[in-house]
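Purpose: get a first structural picture of the assembly so the mutagenesis plan has something to point at.
Setup: two entries, given in the order below. No constraints added.
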Amino acid sequence: MDPTQAGMVAVGAGIAVGLAGIGAGMGEQAIGAAAVGAMAEDEKFFGKGLLMTVIPESIAIFGLVVALILLFVF
Amino acid sequence: MGVSNAVKYAYIVARVRAMKSKLIPREMYPKFLNMDIPEIIRFIEESEYKNDVDELSKKYKGTDLFEHSLSRNLALTYRKLIEVSQNEANFLITEYLRSWDIWNIKTILRGKFSGASEEEILEGVVSAGQLRYRDLTELVKIDTVEGVIAALSGTPYYPALEGYKGDLAEIENALDKWYYSKRIAAATETGNKLFLKFLRTEIDLKNLNILFRMKKAGMERDDIAKLLIPGGLELKEADLNRLASLPFPEFVRALEEYSYWSTIADISNDLTSLIQIETRLEKHALVYASQISHYYPLSILPILDYILSKKIEVDNLRIIVRGKETKLPEEIIKSHLVM
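Result (structure tokens, whole complex):
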């Protein structure tokens, strides 16, 4: 792999993780706010709130997987 | 509904939904009807009203304690909504809850007009609006209606009150009209169409209430038209004028054209009881608020739905205990309940 190609792959991997992270963050902001609101009224919502908040994290993991494929398969 | 709107309302809506889950379930009301007053008070003491009962138990006893605890809880709950909300939600909740200022001003003026004692007037006061309990207590100490109006001169309510010439009904109506026109202006200012729709439906229901009452009392078209509040959703000015001019049976038939008909359709052949009609219309408001709050879950509507549900819970509890205290038959108490 020539250096330019390697550089492009690295940039691609970075974009994949970065955009996926931003998307997950946007998803989490409303869920996090709602989870804190529900918890403020009833502490029993802690477990459910935490679970719901991390669901958009899967998008970030998809980004990470794409980045790893780019870096190690190509 | 964009992402930003969802974020704006996510916190407060989740909190309000959690608060709503703590309201007394509908199935409890028939059980309350079979309980004695001390049993109901004991139940209340162990519920969300515990702190209020504890706080006031030194000052009041029995049903007075019950009544004051309910009012205090209602006021604190509404105040909490204002304190935990932000930006647009905070503005709209504050504006909406001004209806309690109107309620308190009306209660105090009526009390002063009829010569009720300070204690009696304070029993009906709920400091959930912008006028604090301390301010209201000061108002109650003033002896005359004119004095109370003069004391309110620094408030936004004064323009509706300054025309007082001895007719309380006239300024009460002016206060209602002022309240709704200001709320419509607030909703238009924020561009919140859902709030506006809710408010305009509320105006329709209030107008229907007025129409039924006035038609039953046999009032003339012009007198009724003066009382009606402009700005409704389905009942526009032309509709109101037409309905106001019809005799009672035709008026009831004319309501078939509107969506509110479904609320009273099954009792349309026997509309003798105003209480029954008013309870139905209140129930309509409750069901409507609950339904549209599910259509738009991240908006102002779930909050308005909670505000309405909480008020109805307090009203129902009050009706049951006061009804039992005056030994009213169970059927009559039940007919007043909004369930």
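The longest helix of chain B spans residues 301-325.
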